[in-house]
Fold:
Amino acid sequence: MKRVHEHFDDLLKGRIDRRTFFKRAAATGAVTPVIANYLATPAGAVNYSAPSANRFNLTRAMAQSANLAPPAEGIDTSEQLVFRGWNYRPEVVQDNTNRFNEQYGENVDYQTITGDYIAIMENFHIANQPLDMAYANPATLARWQIPGWVHDYEAWWDVDDARGELYDGVRESLTIGDKLYGLPYFVSIRGTMAANMAVLDKAGITAEDFPTTWDELYTQLRQLKADGVTEGAPFLPHWFASGVWFGISWGYLFECLNRGAVLFDDANAPVFDEKSLAILQEWRTLLEEGIVPETVFTMGEADWIDAFATGKYAYSPQQIYDLKVFNDPAKSQVAGQVAPVPVVEQPWGIIDEGIYTVPKRANDSEEKLARKYRLAGFFGYRDQVEGGELYVAKRWAIEAALNSGYKAILQDPEVIEAYNSWLPDPSLLAVLEGIVNAGTFPKVWQTFWWEEWNAQAMSELPKAVLGQTPVEEVHAALKTLAEELVVRYQM
Structure:
């Protein structure tokens, strides 16, 4: 029997109508007021496109000033706040939760979720299960906002301060229709170009010779191949495609964005211009020339990270936080020799992040909501008890090189000391800051249909690059799919 969230997905993908969804969901007792209100919205009244102007505006922000006060001292906290997270360093999250409980006399129940976290959380929302804070990914934030599953932060007393301290791209990624809907758990630039100096030194390439664009990168890689500097392929691209939903499709998205190719315009209408086709054609050529290894398509993310840590490749667009892994002697064969390529003429990669959301429930009184905001603010902004420190974000930066959405983290003396303990050169911290500051966010992630398009792209893009299906055919089919999805979700 299908789970409730699968019926909801069928509804939004046009496979069943609203009457059928109500009938099936009612059989499980899972039609919540939130879902009922969403389903009662007249056809065509819901806009699934990202707003074209999510820019921060101080005047607008002041007009939306907070109307809740922090929880009063001595407030009743006997009712638990439920916090469910995915399974990354749960011991650290539990320790942070304990700190919050102790400082505020609070009662937070933190547990990790095993399995498909996002699907399980959607079940929580649909079935109206108790939930007061949960993680989200960039695309799921918009997906959860559409049916009203999460509160925005506009009633939170610190919203304007937090909003003003974020990197511009991060602020845009967390903003939907002028309202802040998330706080940053971590922020990475996926596609940060990592340079392996152990290979490049053999070719006489120094930091002054680093490529400043994708075109320059490919030119240099072809020369490295021609000179026989590496035994095999010199480049490990973001094309992994085994058991993941963010490999080659995200690699294609961020290279298009970095190079000015347009897959989707500012209103998220499918364009798929000639530049985006040319990139895919060049990928096919790079594989034929032996610039990239064919084995990348069979890699999962962990395999892909491990592969670059072997030291075989000259360059690879990695996550910014894994630079710490590549410079760790216990995990990498080229420790102390992997540097980030700075942003000069174009950004590298795109913003990826974990997000703290505040789920919406029917029993959210103002007192309850204030407690939820305090919890989310502690994890996603500042620890007010300790004088307003970015405590949780700073801890993640020091212990795991997980960067924050706040500019102040990479300027903190203790964070600087921690990063310099593993960076090959202290001057590279400024390079990291420049990469994050230039980070861009794909607006298409703020559509409901992105994940459906992305799933198809994950399966079709490898066929184009491997020559199993003509490049032009795959490119045209992905455009057609996007056009169909736009029509379907604008009904």
